Amino acid sequence: MRAIGTLSRMGRHETARERYDIVAVISGPEPQRTLLEHRLLEQLSRIPGNHLLVLGQPDKPRNERSGSMSIRSHMGGNELAGAMSGARLIVSRSGYTTLMDLEALGRSALIIPTPGQEEQEYLGRLHARTGRFLVQSQESIDLMAAMKSTGKHEAAARANGNELLAAALHELAGLGWSGSLPCRHAQGHPAVRDHGAPGICLGQYDL
Question: What angle do CA 107, 203, 113 make, to 5 degrees?
Fold first, then answer.
């Protein structure tokens, strides 16, 4: 396999004119999308600052201001990237595409797995251990606590990826995954040598 870089819609972007403290981006199937929307609205309304909530509903146009919040139904990739880049805290789901977007931006986030979606729940468990992202369940969201601890997770997002790679390889080895030989970017990598796991290229990390 050959690494082709991080796959993301978050490419070059302009810095948002308006700076936000919290940018929360909702996605996923109903009813979980609406349940998350209600929880975030309730907490954002009580936190001082300037916040943005993106509802993930491109077919239901909405652009309004409510107290300390701007509420948008949908935002294009470049516009959203600008808003997320300047935010103190990003809140999102833990889907693969979202994590690749955050990697492209060099940002961490509070990630909230969609209940019942195994991939997101797995990625949530993984990153709760790696520290690359802050993870909370949908039933126990605490945005104020996330604001206080965001610094160390942002530092992890900027750190060298070797430790995160090693953790991911260990996970794959534990799952008994079998496949082709490591990609040429992973060959000779200390994490690959230590764990002996096959290589899968996911973005800039060889897993």
Answer: 55
- Count up the domains in the chain and report the number: 2
Q: Which of 107, 116, 155 is nearest to 8 (CA)?
A: 107
- Which stretch of DSSP H or E encloses residue 143? helix 143-158
One domain for residues 56 and 154: yes
Domain that holds residue 170: 162-206
169, 140: one domain: no
CATH number for the domain spanning 88: value is 3.40.50.2000
Residues in the chain: 207
Tell me the pTM. Answer: 0.72
- CA distances in angstroms from 129 to 5, 125, 151, listed in the order given: 24, 7, 16
Max mean pLDDT among 13-22, 117-126, 186-195 falls in 117-126
